[in-house]
Structure formats: C-alpha cells, structure tokens
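Re-run requested by the PI after the first attempt was lost when the workstation crashed. Everything re-entered from the original request form. Ligand of interest: manganese (II) ion.
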Amino acid sequence: MLKKIADVIKKAKNVIILPHKSADGDCLGSAFALRLILEQTGKNASVILEEENPKLCGILFGTQPQALNGFDMAIAVDCGDIERLGNRREIFNSCPVTVNIDHHGTNDGFARYNYVDSNSAATGQIIYELMEFLGAVLTLEIANNLYVAISSDTGCFAYSNTTAKTHNIAAKLLETGINHSEINEELFGKNSMAKIMLMRDALNSFETYDDGKIAVVSITREQIKTSGAAEEDTGGLINLPRSLETAMVAICLKESLEDDFVKVGFRSNSVDVSEIAKSLGGGGHVRASGCNIKGSIESVKKAVLKATRKVL
Ligand SMILES: [Mn+2]
C-alpha cells in the first residue's frame, strides 16, 4: 500500500533518490518532484543521476546537486529492476533502508519496501498520490516536474495507458499555473540536430516482416558516434516504425556505446510486448518494453524476430 511506503519515508531524514539510467522524462520528473516534496516535509534529499546533466533538467525544478553527509534511505524511481540503476546499484544496496516506486508490470520488487502500480500511466502519477500521503502541498515547481513525468510517459496523454485519473491529476497540476504548452513543446516539438541525423539513419534502415505486421529500425554504434548524439537523442526512434499503419509490433535495435550489446525496444498497440521482452531477459509494460542482447544487429534481429513471431 502506498500509505505504508509514505509511513516508511516519513521516518527517514537524509534520502537519496535514484532514477533509472538512460534517464527519461518520467524518471527525471518523478525524482525531482519527490525531492521537492521531501524537502517540503523537512528532509534532506538529493537526486543522483547516472548520466551527467540530461537536457530535460533545463525544464525541471530542484535539479541543483546537494551534498548529503550520509543517507539513511535510498528510493529508486521508475526502475523495473535493479540493473536499471547501472553504476549506482552499490549506493542503493549500501543504504540501510531501500524503497522501490515504479509502474513497470515486470518489476521484481528488488527493494526492502516496494510499491509497484502497473495501472499508473507514469511513475509521476504515483509520486502525486504519495505527495498526498506525505502531507505535502502541491507547488508550481512540483507540478511542473510531475507534468513532465506524466506527459512523457503518456505521449502527451495520447497512449492507451492514459486514464481518467491521469487527466484528473493533470488538471490539478495545471491549476498551479504551470506552462504546460512550453513543457510539451520541449518534450515533443523539439529535436536536436543529432536526433534528426539519427532519425534519418533509422528511416534508411527501415524494414518490415510478415506482411508489415513487424516493423524494424536499427542504429549502429558508428551512426550514433557520427551524429554526436547524447543518450537522450537516441530515444523515440521507435515511433517511426510504430506509426506504420499495418504494424502490430514495432522494434528498434540500437548498438550500445559501452559494450557489445544491442538495446532492443518494443512497442505495440495490440500485443503484449512485455512478454516478448521478458522471454529475452528484459521487461517493461504491456505496450512498451525492452531488453539488451549481446551480439550484432543482424544476430540480435534474428533472435528478436523469432521471439516476436511467437506472440503474433
Ligand atoms: Mn515510467
């Protein structure tokens, strides 16, 4: 129960908040909103990121670092499993009390206290409800961060995960006077040069299988390097194959810059792609999931197509 998590959090004094690696709008917005909420209730709180200074921090509040002298609680936000914490796993595990707040259906409950609600469109939606249990007041800054979180994970309130509750919360956020159109322009209306270069490469790689039921794009390590893309520029490429009218499953294959793995993303409007990702060692949501597989784009594509055909 979320109230129980709130009661656990109430006992902490110094808290570190850990969003997942390859940070996106939901984990960043949730983490920095939670920081402001905890500070408002008299705690010291700091967000520790895997990647330095993601671009989205420019539209979030509470992003300045705060040095904590020891911490008694670590909270992972939006992390489906402990691997998503990357190099910060040690920090998390070394903490006396660990909390896991997430909305991925495949979450394995890796912390001492876990709250996973796969019906929540975004982790930001859970943070909003947690705020109420913690007795914090919604400020414009908190609302701004939560709006970034929720709008990110719902594709600007368009995906099927969006519910009446999502809209009700969004209405409360808007009542604080946040500039939602500016946030959405930042999230959906702007691309860096590097991102557009990668979109061009992705479109060039576009291919379909099984009468257009499966649509695939892929991006090589070399293309990512040449474009000068930052981590955040490599997201969203899967929207290209996803938009194919006949596609039941869209797949994006992206070579990792750090190791010899290929990062695989799945999207669908009709098929449970968390099952596909799970069968390949990954996880996620019913309509959006992913996994990492060692190998070349060609070998990984073969494995991924085989797994996908099993659920089609
Ligand atoms: Mn999320």
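Saved to the shared folder this time. DSSP finds twelve helices and eleven strands in the chain.
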